[in-house]
Specification:
The strands form 5 sheets. Strands 11-10-12-9-13 form a 5-stranded mixed β-sheet, with helices on both faces. It has a 3-stranded parallel β-sheet with strand order 5-1-6. The protein has 10 helices and 15 strands. The radius of gyration is 26 Å and the shape is globular. By secondary structure, it is an alpha/beta fold. Helices cover about 40% and strands about 20% of the residues.
Length: about 280
């Protein structure tokens, strides 16, 4: 009897271990409650599903860029080309362009905010780069710009070749503009500010000889203050893309389909002309 009891204990322990192993194996390949793989690869739930469940599209935009995303201090409204593109996405997903929440981002904060889930996408004059593609996915190009300079109207600066030793250039932190000017004018001193509004204020105060960023943004600044002009010509190509959560192919496809629809219908050209003042060249 003692022997039999011993074997029963051994068999019981063995069976319990087998069941535990099976359960662990199942857990290793199971889906979480929201449909995500527990391996952590890809978004937990598609962004489109999250937006529909929430009933609101949350998008990161800039508040300090005339023509693209500028907040009116009197009304609190944010308006611009990027804002109208965001409204079109809200209408595509939710059937109502007003079901949208705008959150302010800067060149420095926008990717972290997307990655931690604070926003569903970034529409903020964001240049598509290979480095950024490691952290986010991009839509097709929705606006093509090029980097140039904003200077005082009486400035003798005509182009990149004028940025020799002693010249100071202001721009925004975390932008491709800072990287580009350092590479193309290594003798110039580059001063970085939190955003372009602060950089423009610094330029007005005489802290720099020029402000550099994409020409599309500079035209907006020149429109705000006629004492400044945009230097003609560009020294880079800056393809803007809508940044989306990494691995969310469904959302990428939806946004790209929308951009194609807007271009085919003529809606894109109308928005471009509304904000930029001319029809797109291609």
């Amino acid at each position: 009897m003692k022997v039999n009891k011993t074997w029963k204990k051994v068999l019981g322990v063995g069976l319990a271990m087998m069941l535990s192993a099976t359960a662990l194996a199942a857990c290793g390949s199971s889906k979480t409650q929201d449909g995500a793989s527990s391996s952590g690869k890809g978004p937990a739930t598609s962004t489109v599903a999250k937006i529909k469940e929430r009933g609101k599209y949350v998008v990161g935009v800039k508040y300090d860029l005339n023509l693209f995303g500028l907040k009116d201090p009197a009304t609190g409204n944010v308006e611009g080309f990027d804002i109208d593109i965001a409204k079109a996405i809200a209408k595509k997903v939710l059937g109502d362009e007003n079901k949208i929440e705008l959150k302010e981002v800067t060149s420095k904060t926008r990717i972290p905010m997307l990655k931690n889930g604070e926003i569903d996408s970034i529409i903020a004059t964001m240049t598509i780069t290979d480095e950024r593609k490691k952290e986010v996915d991009f839509s097709d190009v929705y606006f093509m710009a090029g980097q140039s300079f904003l200077v005082k109207k009486d400035s003798a600066i005509k182009g990149l070749e004028d940025f020799t030793k002693g010249k100071k250039v202001v721009t925004a932190k975390g932008s491709t503009s800072a990287k580009n000017i350092r590479e193309n004018a290594p003798e110039a001193e580059v001063l970085e500010f939190e955003n372009y509004a602060e950089a423009f204020t610094a330029l007005k105060a005489g802290q720099g000889d020029a402000l550099t960023t994409d020409n599309a943004l500079l035209y907006g600044m020149a429109k705000q203050d006629p004492n400044f002009r945009v230097v003609e010509g560009t020294f880079t190509e800056e393809p803007y893309g809508i940044a989306l959560p990494k691995g969310d192919a469904e959302f990428v496809a939806l946004v790209n389909d929308l951009l194609k629809e807007m271009k085919q219908s003529g809606e894109y050209d109308k928005l471009y002309e509304k904000w930029i003042g001319e029809k797109p060249k291609n």
